[in-house]
Amino acid sequence: MAAAERTLAMIKPDGIEKGVIGDIIKRIEDASLKIVGIKMHHLKKSQVEGFYAVHKGKPFFNALCAFMSSGPSIAMVLEGDGAIANWREVMGATDPDKAAPGTVRSDFGTNVERNAVHGSDSPETAKFELSYFFDDNEIVTYEWV
Ligand code: GTP
Ligand code: MG
Fold it and tell me: Sign (positive/negative) of CA torsion 55, 114, 99, 80?
């Protein structure tokens, strides 16, 4: 079994606007991903540019940053065995039209940009993304019974 790890998940502004926060969190818990940090914020464009810096220069970068700063979003620290890959699988492919049936993006996404959720794609990006939004003292510990 993969070692327990942490990943950064976000519910993007389109997910908030659609009123599916609870549906998405249900998918997270059903996948045995434990939420150990959570916050809601309305990101400034400059904050999004820093977060998605890896995509700087791509044709969709400006649109992506405008979208992600268009309304509130939720950032979460998810913890579990193989959390990074697990959450990516639960999210589904970037384009909701190509995402497998039953995935979050297939069920709640609108298009390749407004795709409801974000997830770190590697241990390195998870480390960067978690520290981008959370201080160590904002991450909690508890046991599921
Ligand atoms: P994230 O979990 O949000 O990082 O998605 P991802 O890892 O599945 O995709 P990627 O990192 O390649 O792209 C980051 C985000 O940019 C996507 O989730 C989309 O919101 C947006 N995006 C990606 N490709 C396109 C595109 O071709 N057009 C547009 N408009 N947006 C895109
Ligand atoms: Mg990505």
Answer: positive
Say if strands 117-119 and 4-11 run parallel, antiparallel, or are unpaired: antiparallel
Tell whether pTM > 0.90. yes
List CB contacts of 111: < 8 A, sequence separation 6 or more. 95, 96, 97
Q: Which domains does the chain have, with CATH numbers?
A: 5-134 (3.30.70.141)
Top mutation candidate among 67, 97, 112 for ligand 1, by most atoms within 8 Å of CB = 112
Decide: 95 in ligand 1 pocket, CB within 6 A.
no
Ligand 1 atom 17, closest CA? 113
pLDDT tens digit string along 31-52? 999 999 999 999 999 999 999 9
